[in-house]
Design goal:
The chain is of the alpha/beta class. Among the domains are: 151 residues, no CATH class; 94 residues. It is 61% helix and 14% strand. The chain contains nine helices and eight strands. The strands form two sheets. It has a six-stranded mixed β-sheet with strand order 1-2-3-6-8-7, sandwiched between helices. A hairpin with a 4-residue loop joins strand 4 and strand 5. The radius of gyration is 56 Å and the shape is rod-shaped.
Length: 373
C-alpha cells in the first residue's frame, strides 16, 4: 500500500516534469540558479530498474538542456538518508552512457543533482555527502544539495518561476488535517487551494511563465492530489464541491485557448483577405498593363502596316524611278548615237566643203589662167 502511495506522488512529479519546455526550463533555473533561455531544448533520460516487488518503475529524472548540461532531480516524500547512494548510482549510470574520450583519458560527465523533499520533515540536511575512497589516489566528496519544498513560500515559488511544483503545496496541511478537520483547518485548505495554488497558476499564466495547457494540467494534477489526500474525509464534502468547481472545470482556460485560436484564425483570415485583395489589385494592374500592352501592340501593328504600305509605295516609286532612269539612259544612248552620227555628217559636210572650195579655187585659177577672170 505504501509503495502504491509513493508511486502516485512519483507519477505526478514526473508528469509535472513533462509540461512545456518553457515551464521546465523555469524550474531548472529556479532550482539550480541557472539562467537558460525559455526556448532552450529539454531532453529526457528516464532510467528503469526493478524494485523489491519485481515491478518495473521509473527511478530517476535526468534532464539535458540544449544537448549539453544535465540535471538530476529526485523527489522524496520522507527523509531517506540512503538516497545519496541511489542518486550517485543513477548519476554514474548516466555518466557512463555519455562518457567522453579525451586524448589521454576518459571523462564521465555526472549530472548536477538535487533532492526535493515534498513533505515537511524535521532535521532535513541541506546537503548529503558521499565520500569516495580511491585508496592511494585519495578521497573525493560527492555532494548532493537538498530542497525542502515546504519551506519555500508561495511568493518565492512564483518569484523563481517554479510554479509547476505548486500542486504539492497541498501536502503542507496534510498532517494538520489528519489530526483535525476543524473549521479553521478547512478554511486554511480552501484558501491554500484558491489563493496559493489556483491564484499562482493564473498569475503565472498571465505572466507567460507557463502555457494554457500547462495551467490546465496543473489544475488537474492538483485535483488528483486533493482527491488522493483529502476527498475521503466526510468533513470535506462542502470543500469537495468547491474543488470540483475550481480545479476540475477549467472551462475558462479552454475558452481562452479557443479564443486565442479563433483570434489566430481571424488574423490568418484577415491576412489571407489582405493577400487576396493585394492579389486582386495586382491582377487588376496586370490586366491594365496587359490591356495597355495590347493597345501598344495594336498601335505598333498599325504603324507596321503603315510602314509596310509606305515601303510598298516607296518600292513602287523606286521601280518607276528605275524605269525612268532606264528610259533616260536609253534616250541618252540614242542621243549619243545621234551626236556621233551628226559629227560624222558634219565631218563629211566639212570635207565636201573643203573639196568644193578646192574645186572652186582650181576653177578660179583655171579661169585666170585662160583670161576668163
Amino acid at each position: 500500500m505504501e509503495n502504491t502511495i509513493y508511486q502516485i506522488y512519483d507519477k505526478i512529479f514526473k508528469k509535472i516534469l513533462t509540461l512545456s519546455s518553457k515551464s521546465v526550463i523555469n524550474l531548472i533555473n529556479g532550482l539550480f540558479e541557472t539562467d537558460y533561455s525559455p526556448d532552450s531544448t529539454v531532453e529526457y533520460h528516464w532510467t528503469e530498474f526493478m524494485d523489491d516487488t519485481l515491478k518495473r518503475i521509473l527511478a530517476d529524472t535526468i534532464l539535458t538542456i540544449d544537448g549539453k548540461y544535465s540535471y538530476h532531480i529526485e523527489a522524496q516524500m520522507t527523509k531517506d538518508d540512503s538516497i545519496i547512494f541511489r542518486v550517485f548510482e543513477y548519476g554514474f549510470s548516466h555518466a557512463n552512457r555519455h562518457g567522453i574520450q579525451k586524448d589521454d583519458y576518459y571523462e564521465l560527465p555526472f549530472p548536477e543533482p538535487k533532492i526535493i523533499y515534498l513533505c515537511p520533515e524535521p532535521n532535513l540536511p541541506e546537503q548529503y555527502t558521499l565520500r569516495l575512497n580511491f585508496g592511494s589516489q585519495g578521497y573525493f566528496d560527492y555532494k548532493v544539495n537538498t530542497c525542502c519544498f515546504s519551506k519555500i513560500s508561495t511568493q518565492e515559488l512564483n518569484d523563481k518561476k517554479m510554479v509547476i511544483l505548486i500542486p504539492f503545496k497541498l501536502l503542507n496541511l496534510r498532517r494538520e488535517l489528519e489530526k483535525s478537520r476543524s473549521l479553521e483547518n478547512l478554511i486554511a485548505l480552501k484558501n491554500l487551494i484558491q489563493n496559493d495554488i489556483i491564484g499562482s497558476i493564473e498569475d503565472n499564466l498571465r505572466l507567460n511563465n507557463i502555457t494554457i495547457d500547462d495551467a490546465r494540467k496543473l489544475k488537474r494534477l492538483t485535483h488528483k492530489l486533493y482527491e488522493h489526500i483529502y476527498s475521503h474525509y466526510d468533513e470535506m464534502e462542502v470543500l469537495n464541491d468547491m474543488t470540483d468547481e475550481s480545479l476540475m472545470l477549467d472551462i475558462d482556460y479552454i475558452e481562452k485557448e479557443y479564443e486565442e485560436k479563433i483570434d489566430a484564425v481571424k488574423r490568418n483570415l484577415e491576412s489571407t483577405k489582405q493577400r487576396l485583395e493585394d492579389a486582386e489589385q495586382k491582377l487588376e494592374n496586370t490586366e491594365q498593363k496587359l490591356e495597355n500592352t495590347e493597345q501598344k501592340l495594336e498601335n505598333t501593328e498599325q504603324k507596321l502596316e503603315n510602314a509596310e504600305q509606305k515601303l510598298e509605295n516607296t518600292e513602287q516609286k523606286l521601280e518607276n524611278t528605275e524605269q525612268k532612269l532606264e528610259n533616260t539612259e536609253q534616250k541618252l544612248e540614242n542621243t549619243e548615237q545621234e551626236r556621233i552620227y551628226a559629227e560624222q555628217r558634219l565631218k563629211s559636210a566639212e570635207q565636201e566643203r573643203d573639196a568644193m572650195q578646192a574645186e572652186i579655187s582650181r576653177l578660179k585659177a583655171l579661169l585666170k589662167e585662160n583670161g576668163l577672170l
